[in-house]
Each structure stands twice: as structure tokens, then as C-alpha cells.
Design brief:
48% helix; homodimer; alpha+beta
Chain lengths: 567, 567
């Protein structure tokens, strides 16, 4: 505990695990190593907990500040489009260390890289060296199809793992940094600026249930047909292309997984309070090639369904470029790509494009209560999605292994009885022997039915759950952007009272927070609507499949029973 | 190996494990203790194996015969109704030690004992101190009904154990003694004698498939209604009485388990080559009283069904006395009881009552081939019945525990999802939330269906299997009686060639062996016919129950699906 640091600003803890410090307070640190921008230590009151790394400078033996040299006002926001001009607010927004920049920035290569990527990959999947494992393989006894539920064992690999990570909704160490990164802070502080074209306008309207995104007046859908292997350079290079056909153009385009990946990165960057559906996980190739491609396609269909259902995402330029640009016209593709990557209406500027319904601003207390309610909702939904996922996954595994085995053992036992009875040469027993043999086969078949069933009902359900786990993992960040804005409003009121800020400036903060609140509530409303739509459809499909399954079993047993009529 | 013995007669080994000895040959014995009438030792040729205990006298140090003093010709057959008059044949039929008399003799008490029994028992079941255990309790996890499949853990306890003991069909050390005990030997040797009344006549006829028992011209059935607690002596004594109503009298009589037990002992004693169905196992009382009584009743129904289906058993006096004697008329019951216990037409004399179809005698080679075929059949049927029993027992256990648990876990997961969704107060999601909650309940109910199902299909199947395991345990003895008779025929032919027997005497042996063969084949034919009838009916019932079960599940899921129509 020799490691000491000096607080550069006041920090008021807001969550369990955080500790408050005053400017110039000397704190003890357990380690110089930050955890996602936070340092562990104790303050002068002896309270132990987390302090934003950017709020302190570590005091080395020579007591000279050797850390956070770039954390002086102004320079430490270098990674944000606009500078911070209000030191009073900065105390609530520790900056993000540079190494924690958004993970998807890596996808934004140069055009040269892109061309390289486009042409140079001959693997079916786009990622090398990922170990393939089956979800059910825990105590897989070899009776089920070995290709079942292939997924990677790397980060975000299994649904359960992913769900667990998204289950930590209530404890997000990046609370502040999200607000900053997203541009939320810059926008609220009035530092976002850009020219908003009419086409960029995004409208929030007052709907039956509160703020809603204005519906896309030209709704469309997009099919994704079975992918095919494409070749280039006289067959020297090959890759898998998915055939996309949007209903509004009726023109098929070919897209590879990496194009989806690139698009996803653009969308995440552009829309700070919109939950962009996650694209299917990156997976390895291997001997399960067909299963893998089929599974990825299903994931992409779910993804596409959510994209085209979303009033804002469905209309945006980069998505339209992705859907409509001729796959073979590389020049026009590059132009659209460059334009998207140079889009100025991203992050903080996105909020500039939002127009709210006319009328009074939202009641902040009501907004906060709604957001808190939604936070509790996502937490509980996340828990139960994890539960349903784990349970149905285990249920599927049991059907593939145990259930199948039990029914087939019954089948074998009946077959054995039929064989024993065949030793009796009496003519009057021939019919019975055949009927018993058929009964044995029926139970054998029923065992197979059980093993085959999960791919018809559990798998689609799990695909849906996976998509929603992605959304649930997005929401903490979205909530934090809104919460950050609310905090700014409260602070501005305080500063006005203290005479540190004039009223018009505070009104501007209020107004801009109001925009963020409208957008967030509209997005939450959209989430609930598609959630109800999707889960209703999926539960209906699940039950319909289950009914068909038990009817198939009944049918098989009825066949067996009929055999005894002539026995 | 100091223990020596002298062979009293020639013995020619016929089965693996036996060794041959000549009269006066000195053999070494491993022990003075016989195993079911056999001694282990080695002959003068150094061959090791089994020798009938009654064929040797053990030579003690003083070389005086101190063992088998009663095994000299004439006196050693004291336990057989008639003396052995043909020493030449005796060599093939070692007598049975007295301690091995038929186990059911113990049931034949005096009238005083009977009255004592009749009046003095106040327990519900008739046997004390038997530990109760559940068939499925191996790794019973407490989810199933704890009263399930109660059975005793004593001898002949579990079906599997019983089946295993009956599975040792091919190696019966009592081969000879069964033949002797049953009276088969005495009859074949012409030593059975008695006055056969017309009413005692048992006819074997030539049927479509070979020898058959003549059908009972007055077939009847008998219902067993739910037993009631009866009291005597102003309520001081109580017992459980089963209400029997035979269709040919339409008069209800009350019978206790011990009456069934007494009757069973009479039947086994009387009919050497008829497979008397086993009565349900003796069981303990306990907190599962109702289940226990219900299970015993089901077993007695099966037993009764087989009794009334059998052309010979159904007609016999002791059974008719049991079915028709007024339960409250103790005097007339005692008379019938005494008469049955003094019946002379039992064992050897039973064969005197049999009349065979007119025409040529059976071809002995063909008979032997049929008997061998049936022996192989029973062996294989026994194996497969053990298998079906063990498999369905395990299948039932899995349904009660694992299957139930899996479906209810799915139900819980769906319920949890519905509860999470209820946190969202949107009016448009109420229907979905209710539908998901109902789906959860449906899977919960399906779990219960799985747990309840075995008592509707597996249990009746297992009851049938248990009855047949009893028959399969009877057949080795029946086969040995017939085989013993065949051996006598072969020996008589040899003795005629050797001039030790005259032709008319040998013809008599042939003729009497022919009667035993007719009876045995008639019994085998009857067995096949009821087997085909019973298994056909039971498999139909099983499948019908299974179909109903899966339809019930389907119905429940359809109800759940309909909930989404208004969601």
C-alpha cells in the first residue's frame, strides 16, 4: 500500500463499489494497473473501492506526476471530436484510456486492406484458428449427431458464456466512459456540430405508448438465400457469398461475412442509443462446414430481420449501400464505403439529427423512473434468457442422448422379445411376433425422433435468445448515455444555483438531454414491440413443432398398434 | 480328500458336471455335505464332478456305513408312495433326501392350525417382518411417488432377481429328484395305483397343433373386487378379504391371501406337469397399505385369469371348492379342505387320470425334439422377459425422475421468462406474458404426465411379465419329468435287449411314458396359446396407453398454443 495517488478532481461515488474522493485528496492504491479505467484503492476516510483512473495522478517516490500526463484538462479528450470546455462537468466524466477505444475500429481499414480482404481469402469462414466445440458436448456420449450446435469456444463463445457476461448489467465499469465515447457528453455540453441534411433527419414521434421512432414509410424486408462458394482469378481464390435480395429493389447482391462485420462496426459507431443487433459469432471452419454455413445463415436472417424492422437502422445510408450496391461494381462499392467511413453524423453528431415531437419536454423524473424500470426489466430478462437458454440447451442434449437411449433400449427389449417368440414355430404366433418386432422398431424410431427434434424447436428458440442476449448486452451502454445526460442536467441546475453557469446555458443542457431521452425512450419502445412480436412468433413456432413432434410419435405408435389387429 | 464313499449302484452321467460310477466303486468326496442331493467328488478314473448322494455310502474311518443307512433298496424310497421294485431302474433315479421334500408341504397344517390362521391374524398382509423396498429406488431422487412399485427385498423379491433364478433353466441339479418327487418315476414304473372316478378323468385330445387339453365345456371367469377389511369376534380380529365372484355361480365368496396360498400348494402337489401360475409375492404391510392391497389384487386377478383359462386347473375340485364354498359356512369349508388334503389323485396318481387320444402313440424322437425346442424357447423367452422387465422398469424410473425433471425445468424456465416479461407494464404484452406463463404450466403438467404414465402402461406390462416369469420357472421341472420318463423308456429297451426285462413290461413303460408326453405337450400347447393371447392383449394395452399419453401431451400443448392467438 505504498502506492499513493492524488485526486485531480472531486469524484462522488454513485454505485456500490465506488468510493468518493475530493480534489487533492491523497488515496492509497492496491495497484497501478487499472481495470477498464478504474483503480482499486482506499480514500482518506479508509473506504475501499474503485476510483476512476483518470481522476488521480499516481505519486511515485519522487512525488512527481509520472502517470496521466495527458489527463490535464483539454488534452485528455483528444479522442473525442470536440474539446471539453466546461471543467466543472469534467469531474463527472473520466476519460477512457486510449487502449480501450471501440473494438470495432480495427475493422475500419483502408480501401487497400478492404480489397485485399475481398479478394485474398480462400477460407470459407473468415477467422482462422478458432477452436470448434459443440454446445452439448459436456457429457456427450456419442449418440447424437456430432455436428450438433457448433460454436466457438473463444470469447462470447457459448450462449451461456455470452449470457453470463451480459448478465452483469448492473455493474458496468465503463459507465462514464460510455457516455463520453458515445458522444453523449459532447452533445449535452453543446459541443457537437455538423450540417444536418434533410435526408439525415431522424424523427421521434408521440405514439400510443410514449415516444416512438417514426415508422419507415417504405418498409421492406430482405431474404438471405443459401450461400454459395464464389471464386475469383480463375478459381485461384474462393469464398462464401450470401445472396441478399431486398424486397424494395428485388435485385440480388452477394455479401460476405466480413461485409456484415464492416457494416456492423459502422452502425455501432453511428448510433449511440440504438441497439444494433449483433451479427452471428465468428466461427471456425472444419468438417462441420455445411452445418456451420447453415447456422450462420440463420443467424444472419435473424439479424437482417431486426435491421429491416428498425425504423432508423433500416433507412440509414450505409445499410442501404450494403443492400443495394452491385456486388461486381467495385468502384461504386468503394465510393459508398469511403462515404460511410467519412460520415460526420456519427456519435455526438447523431443526436443533432434527431427531431423531437412538438410540445413540452419530457418530465425528467418520469424519464428517470422509466429508464430505471427498463434497467430492472433488462436485468430480469437477461437472467431468465440465460435460464431458458441453459435449460433448453440441456433439454436438447438430454433428448439427443438420454431420451433417445431410453426409447431405443425399450425398442431393443421388445425386439428381443419378438425374436424369442420366433423360436416358437406355431403358425398362430407369427402375427404377434411381427407386431412385436414392429413395435420394437417404432420405439427405435421414436428414439431418433427425440434426437432429431431439438434442431426443429430448441435451435430456433436459442437463435432468438442469442439475438436478444446481444440486445441485452447493448442496453447498459445505452442506459448509461441517458443517465449521463440526466446527471449533466442535475449538475447544471446545481451550477446555476451556485452561480457557476447562466440559465440559458443550463436550458441548452436540458434541451439536449431531452433529445437523448426522447431517442432512448423511442428505442426502448421499439425494443418492447419487436420483443413481443418475436417471442410470440417464436413460442408459437416452438409449440407447433412440439405438437407436430408428439403427433409424429403418436402416429408411429398407432402404426404399431394396427399391426396387432391381424396378430 | 480323505473322505471316501462306495457306490451302491451304477450311475451313468448324462449331463456336464456329472461323473459315472460303477457299483462298489470307491470314490473320493470333497465334502460329506450334499448340494441338493448331489455330492462333489472324483471317481476311480480321476474324473471330478457330481454323484447322486443316494448312490453312495460314505466310508468313515471304521469303514462301517454310517450315512445313508436308509438308502438300501426298498427303505430309501420311503418317501415315495410305492416301493421301488426294479433295482435295475433304480440306478437311474437317485432318491431325494427327506429334507428336500416339497416346500409347500409346510402349508398343509391340521384343521386346528387352519382355524388358528383363519381367525387369529390381525395384520393386513399375512407375513411379518419383510422389508419393503421400491423397485425404482436404486437412484431414486425423490421426485416420483414414493409408494411406487413396492415389493419385498427377500427371496424371489425383485422381478429381475426372480427372473435370474428362473434363468438357470439349463442346469437343474434336481433333474432326477423332480422326476421322483413328482411321481413321474413311480408312474412310469407302473407303481402308481388308485381308483379313478369319472369326475377325475382328464382328457388330452388331438388338436390342430398337436395334443391339447380338452376344453372345459363350461368355461367361466371370476372377478376379484376391491378387498375390504373384515372383522370377527366383535371387532377384536381383523383381516383383509378379497371378494371373488365366479361367473358360473354368481355368488360372491370372501377369500384371504392365505387361502390362495393354501390352494396354490394343493395345485402344485396335485399336477406334476401343469404349470400352476404363481400367486403374488408375499409382501409386508406398511404405510403404503392401499398401494400394496391394490397391487396384490392386480396380481391375484392375473392369477385368477390364468386359473380360469386353464382347461384342467379351472375344473379341479379343490379350485371349485375354493371358488364356491360359502365363506361363512366353516363346517363345509373344513370338509372340502380335508377332502382336498386327502386327495389320492395327486403326483404319480395324477397320471392315472389322464386319457390320451385314440390312435398310435407319439413318436418319441419327435416328442424329444419338441421338448428340446420348447426348452430352448423358454430359455430365450426367460432371457428376453428379464430384459424387457429390467428395461421397462428403468424406463419407468427415468420417466418418474429424469423425464419429469427435464420437462418441469423447461416449464420453470418459461415461467421465469413470463415473469421477467411482466416487469414490462405495456398493455400490448399482457397477452404474451399470460401465454408464456401458461406454456410454463403446460410443461410442468407434462412432467407430471411422464411421472404418472408408468402406472398406466409399464406396471400392467410388468405384472404380466412377472406371471410369465413364474411359468418359466415352473417349466424346467415339468420338462425334467418328461425327460425322466423318456430316459426310462430308453433304459427299458436296453434292458429288454439284455434280457433283464420282458417285452410286455417294457411296453407298459412305453405306454405310461406316452401318457406323460401327451400331458406335457398338451400343457406346452396351452402355454403357447395363452402366451400369444396375453402378450397380444398386453402389447395392445401398452400401445393404447402410450398413444393416449402422447395425445394428452399434444392436447396440453395445443391449449398452450391457443393462448397465443389473443396475445
Amino acid at each position: 500500500m505504498a502506492l499513493k495517488a492524488r485526486a485531480l478532481y472531486d469524484f462522488n461515488s454513485e454505485n456500490p463499489g465506488e468510493i468518493s474522493v475530493k480534489e487533492n485528496e491523497i488515496v492509497s492504491l492496491y495497484s497501478e494497473q487499472d481495470i477498464e479505467g478504474w483503480l482499486e484503492g482506499s480514500n482518506s476516510k479508509g473506504e475501499r473501492g474503485l476510483i476512476p483512473a483518470s481522476y488521480v495522478e499516481i505519486l511515485k517516490n519522487d512525488t512527481a506526476p509520472t502517470f496521466n500526463n495527458n489527463s490535464t484538462s483539454g488534452s485528455r479528450y483528444a479522442n473525442i471530436p470536440t474539446g471539453v470546455t466546461s471543467p466543472g462537468f469534467a469531474a463527472f466524466s473520466p476519460p477512457v484510456p486510449v487502449q480501450q477505444q471501440h473494438g470495432y475500429q480495427a475493422s475500419q481499414g483502408s480501401d487497400e486492406d478492404w480489397d485485399e480482404d475481398w479478394d485474398d481469402s480462400s477460407t470459407v469462414a473468415d477467422e482462422p484458428g478458432v477452436v470448434v466445440g459443440g454446445n452439448y458436448q459436456g457429457d456427450f456420449d456419442g449418440n447424437g449427431p456430432s455436428t450438433y450446435r457448433v460454436s466457438t469456444s473463444t470469447s462470447k463463445s457459448s450462449n451461456v458464456q455470452q449470457a453470463k457476461s451480459s448478465a452483469t448489467v448492473s455493474r458496468n465499469l465503463n459507465r462514464f466512459s460510455t457516455f463520453v465515447k458515445s458522444g453523449g457528453e459532447a452533445f449535452v455540453l453543446g459541443d457537437a456540430a455538423g450540417f444536418v441534411k434533410d435526408g439525415d433527419k431522424i424523427c421521434v414521434v408521440s405514439g400510443q405508448y410514449g415516444p416512438e421512432w417514426q415508422e419507415n414509410p417504405y418498409p421492406f424486408a430482405c431474404t438471405i438465400d443459401d450461400p454459395t462458394k464464389q471464386t475469383k482469378f480463375k478459381g485461384m481464390k474462393s469464398y462464401i457469398a450470401y445472396k441478399l435480395t431486398p424486397t424494395h429493389t428485388q435485385t440480388q447482391v452477394n455479401r460476405r461475412y466480413k461485409h456484415f462485420d464492416w457494416l456492423y462496426a459502422r452502425l455501432v459507431e453511428k448510433f449511440p442509443v440504438i441497439s444494433v443487433p449483433h451479427i452471428p459469432e465468428k466461427q471456425a471452419t472444419g468438417r462441420f462446414e455445411e452445418d456451420f454455413i447453415s447456422k450462420r445463415r440463420k443467424g444472419l436472417i435473424w439479424w437482417m430481420n431486426h435491421m429491416t424492422s428498425h425504423p432508423i437502422l433500416s433507412k440509414c445510408d450505409v445499410f442501404q449501400h450494403f443492400l443495394t450496391c452491385n456486388s461486381t461494381d467495385e468502384k461504386s462499392w468503394k465510393q459508398g464505403k469511403r462515404k460511410a467511413e467519412k460520415d460526420e453524423m456519427v456519435g455526438a453528431n447523431f443526436f443533432l439529427t434527431i427531431s423531437t415531437p412538438s410540445g413540452p419536454p419530457l418530465d425528467l423524473v418520469e424519464v428517470e423512473s422509466k429508464i430505471d424500470g427498463f434497467k430492472a426489466f433488462t436485468k430480469k430478462m437477461d437472467d431468465s434468457v440465460v435460464q431458458v437458454n441453459a435449460t433448453t440447451n440441456e433439454f436438447a442434449r438430454k433428448q439427443i442422448t438420454g431420451f433417445k437411449k431410453e426409447y431405443q433400449k425399450v425398442g431393443q427389449a421388445f425386439k428381443g422379445l419378438g425374436q424369442a417368440f420366433e423360436l416358437d414355430q406355431q403358425t398362430y404366433s407369427v402375427g404377434l411376433n411381427q407386431a412385436i418386432a414392429y413395435t420394437g422398431e417404432a420405439y427405435d424410431a421414436i428414439g431418433d425422433y427425440f434426437a432429431e427434434q431439438p434442431r426443429h424447436d430448441v435451435d430456433p428458440l436459442m437463435d432468438l435468445l442469442q439475438l436478444y442476449q446481444g440486445h441485452l448486452a447493448n442496453y447498459p451502454d445505452i442506459i448509461h448515455v441517458q443517465k449521463g445526460a440526466l446527471t449533466k442536467v442535475k449538475e447544471s441546475q446545481k451550477h446555476v444555483e451556485e452561480g457557476k453557469m447562466d440559465a440559458p446555458q443550463a436550458d441548452g443542457v436540458n434541451e439536449r438531454c431531452n433529445i437523448i431521452s426522447f431517442a432512448t425512450l423511442a428505442e426502448i419502445q421499439h425494443f418492447h414491440q419487436v420483443r413481443v412480436r418475436d417471442f410470440k412468433a417464436q413460442m408459437q413456432q416452438y409449440l407447433t413443432e412440439q405438437i407436430g413432434f408428439f403427433q409424429k410419435i403418436t402416429g408411429k405408435l398407432e402404426e404399431a398398434l394396427q399391426m396387432y389387429d391381424n396378430a
